[in-house]
User: What shape does this take?
Amino acid sequence: MDFQLSREHQLLATTLKDFAENEVRPLARETDEKEAFPVSTVEKMARFGMMGIPFPKDFGGAGGDNLGYIMAVEALSKVCGTTGVILSAHTSLCAAPIYEFGTDEQKRRLLPDLASGKKIGAFGLTEPNAGTDAAGQQTAAVLSGDKYILTGSKIFITNAGYADVYIVFAMTDRSKGTRGISAFIVEKGMPGFSIGKKEEKMGIRGSSTCELIFENVEVPVSNLLGREGGGFGLAMKTLDGGRIGIGAQALGLAQGAIDETVKYVKERKQFGKTIGSFQNTQFQLADMQARTDAARLLVYRAACLKDAKQPYSTEAAMAKLFASETAMAVTTMAVQLHGGYGYTREYPVERMMRDAKITEIYEGTSEVQKMVISAAVLK
Amino acid sequence: MKIIVCIKQVPDTTEVKINPTTGTLIREGVPSIINPDDKSGLEAALVLKEQQGAHVTVLSMGPPQADLALREALAMGADQAILLSDRAFGGADTWATSSTLAAAIRKLEWDLIICGRQAIDGDTAQVGPQIAEHLQVPHVSYVTELQVGEKAIEVKRKFEDGWQRLRVQFPCLITTLKDMNQARYMSMAGIYEAYKREVKVWGLADIDVDQANIGLKGSPTRVKASYTKGTRSAGKVYEVDPRDGARIIVESLKEKFII
Assistant: This one.
């Protein structure tokens, strides 16, 4: 077992850190306060190949791996949780399932634009009555000639409105339950496809989270992803990968909050001493860093297993569960160590705390992760 | 067009901390970077490559660890990388460094050589112009803008109080300033390829150079002493408002004939 990053990954870490500090950090506060999707940042990320890190060069990717990709999510999230989730949803939830489950024709047609960042991706599974119970899909698709007619709606869709390509799940045969769900590639501009209400959120406020509306959208058969009826399995496998991305986002938020706190406690003086010289501060920081390092090892392990083409579903669930709960705990402690200032918008830790909460909820709540993990433990 | 960019790996001085008791730099754990003036020179070469096509070679003299700076240059988009590394080259001053680099450059085909103005760890600004002298080609230092024509390059040369526009024929050498552009990030694809590509390592046996002009023995510069500049007298503390503070500063500077 070797806990060293490879030379490539070390090189990657330096450039990701520079990019995050120079291009992302200066916009993070405004992105949050104005609920502004960071369009120009995403363009810059695309220019350096960040939108397609784990995909082969033949498909417009960087020819890299999942470890490199989640390091990018981590580095971005350290300074801006919004930017981190944009990359995660795009890569894990849209480009990855096309790469893993798409036909050759679909890959050639769609991946180069996604991997190069010319197009942004999104994923639509959740509905008002189908959250954790994803099998309760109401959106329906009916085959008519060489098209499926899609009707229904989705909610809480990350990147909605800014995305060009959406992986959308719909019932093709309600009598079969989860085996009657299929996955479709819906593209921006298809008649009848529109973006509905935008959510106002507690955190990751620059990320666009909207409703998707399908009114008799004609989706060509060539846009069926995987086989008819195979959508549920495809969604679950896609979310396994997505959880590593969200774990990395949580990890970045936790480390970012620690870094801010370290700066603060070295400067802030009370009772004539820096608060970093008090043992309470020191012990809290020790706990924060130890938990965050443990989360990093779990997240990196899951990514390395995926890269090695080994089963990683349980490991991804553990990584997401532990990293997101760590992010929530660590950012809360960071606000506490900042005292009253930590509660103000002047310091970024309050934003990080708000951003952290969602990591315990989306792409499978902590409770769902525990179901996945315990099922493997009790097998 | 063939361009050679000379780069130096230097400690990132923005990350250097000073030992409070000895007053010396703490070098351990300080990351190494491509010297900023050199990095902008590389960026200028890569822009030329994109705009009109060019083959860009990066050349560095240094210890084996300087390999990292060359990998970074490859990941930014350079076509070829050469590291001049040999114990015989060690301890070189600017004369020995420029002699060694010039000897390596003689083995290569090129139209334009780009060097950074100066390194942040030495600040001499001598190596670039010296290379040009060794090679008997014209050079322009302190370049902030450039445009390449068919046979010549037009540059804007910046001084503290003005600038010149100059046209210089190929083959020639320029030295660049870091403010001329913002160097690009390594591309993700470039990073994943960086260690699959070759960094050629040339030693003494690979270049034709007079051994009297290389390494410590070939370095005429002698450092007689180095010291930390101390304060000459205790400072005075005034507790006044900013307006009075400014007046006191100006007056005392005038008293000392500084302004």
Summary: The beta strands of chain A are 121-124, 140-144, 147-158, 165-171, 181-187, 193-198, 209-220, 224-225, 269-270, 273-274. Chain A touches chain B at residues 7-8, 11-12, 14-15, 18-19, 48-50, 52-53, 57, 61-64, 68, 72 (CB under 8 Å).
